[in-house]
Amino acid sequence: MEDQVYKIIQLAGSSETSIEDAIEGAIARAARTLKHLRWFEVVETRGHIEEGKVRHYQVILKVGFALEEGEAE
Question: Tens digits of per-residue pLDDT, 24-63?
């Protein structure tokens, strides 16, 4: 197995439905412009309350992706 170098970025995802949808939406959006996504870590979870009910879920993710040979760090 070849050694890999990863770049780590942070993303914020939100959903009116669930934490899982917030995560999946953030990853899907990132995948449209970033290559070689490999892992994620949820570092914060929060939400918005309106009239006593949860209205939005929000997550902050760290996302790691492999750099290609010769790619700027």
Answer: 999 999 999 999 999 999 999 999 999 999 999 999 999 9
Question: Which tens digits make up the pLDDT trace of 5-31?
Answer: 899 999 999 999 999 999 999 999 999
Bridge-based pairing of strands 37-50 and 6-15 is: unpaired
Name the strand (E) or helix (H) holding 69. none
Backbone phi, then psi, for 72, in 5-degree steps? Answer: -65, 145
Give the CA angle between residues 20, 41, 50 to the nearest 5°.
45
Distances (CA, A) of 3 to 31, 66, 68: 22, 10, 11
Token code pair at residue 48: 């918005």
Neighbours of 39 (CB within 10 A): 12
